[in-house]
Amino acid sequence: MKKLVALLLTLVMALSMVLTAASAETELKIYLFGEAQNMDKVLARFYAESGLGIKLNLVWNTGADHREKMPLLIGNEEPCDLVFDAYWMNLATMIKQEMYADISSYFHNDAYPGLKAAFSESYLAQVTEADGAIYALPITQAPNDLQCIFYREDLAQKYGITIDSLESLEAYFKAVKENEPDMVAPLGIGGGRALYYLDSDIMEKRLANVFEFSGTGTAVGMEFEVAISEDGKTVLGAGAIGAPDAYYANFPAPYNTNTRSERAITKLTKWAQYTQANSITEEDAKNNLFFTGLCAAIEGNISGYETCKAEIEKIQDAKLGMFVYNDGLRNRTPGYFVTSGQTAWNFLCVPYYSQNIDAAMQFIDWIFQSPENHDLFELGIAGEDFTLNDAGEYTKLTGSNVYTFPGYELTWNPNFIRTNANLDDQVKALVKYMNDPTSYTASAVDGFTFDNQATPALATAYAAVTAVQSEYIRPLMHGTYGADTAAMLAEYWDKASAAGIETVRQAVMEQVQAFLDAHGK
Most buried of the four, 27, 304, 408, 445, by CB within 10 Å? Predict the structure, then answer.
């Protein structure tokens, strides 16, 4: 009997080894948003060259669906090995709820040379917890993206306008409004992307040690601003749009009154006269208006230049122009970019229950082991999807089979940046400026992220406040309250106060001060 049992066990083990060999390939289920095009050929090349025995099963959501569905999917422990997340999605809450695995052991590890080369200790500081844990891998090329206006250069030339200042930009808007009846507006904006950066003073404030922090309000324009002492050691105060001027009394001049409210009352209402009537309900002004020739400009980021240029040139005789509002950035002033808090906006995470954490990190490691590996996923197959010149600049090829992929979800990294060889000289210079470390000045709050779920009281107040903000943010940021803006701001602040915004404000100041105490000079 013992011999029979031993024989059966031997047979079972042999069968198990055969089955294991046949199924040694690991499938990674990866959830992203948006879409890629013609990716099959890139995956085939990856499978042939990597030798990892890893297959990728990519699931694409819309942005809204991704934000809504992923907490439920991961909460139910449905199959998932890598997922895109961000503080502007669900990252803070998911980390708080311990939904993501600690991946810290894979960095600074000789077994993962790609990760070791691409993710320095200083770069990872923004995601490293006090106990050394890392729950999110940062995906970014530069600490900041230049905010800008994309406009129709052919129309600017038509009306003899060189756009090099806010005054000339307004002259352009006036000319279009008066002379282009087939356009719905000179400046197209959408509900989710309002006048967030046009005519703002965010960069100037950072130079004066006044910083805005995402996660402290529902979106850009509603978050808190915090003033830090000149020595970088002390929080001087915190305020937000709608707050009384007294909240700003300790801010450095000329920011010692509520400049956020003043911008909404005077500047945003002025620019609103050049936007389309249905701006609040329009969700995609770029695709629905700018790319179809129904408006003459949109607000954007310089990272979107290539896409905008390709789409605008589909319109007969149309040319794309770009205007960076801020003088210091437009003139490429060294050190002018002052970094503020979280320096990456996008992240990849591994659900805590994944059985394929090693394989997931091996896949990412492979991408960053060489420029060639990285190019494969960011640009495609050399000779089919892109070419490189002697300076290492790329040119995307055209055709129905050309590969495209949203690199900001997987491949962006400060150590792996290629510049488009076909950018206009001005744009190329600005892109290189944006990616140049000498363009940046570190601040005392680098690496800070606000935890709006730190306590039950804060979580409750934050949820109530953001619900109030959602009622007001679009008309405020679109400037559509007009002459009633001051009154509506007062109404908003009363409701936000009743909802608990002071609890949020105190938590912001306490958390920033704790960060300065722990990480300060």
Answer: 445
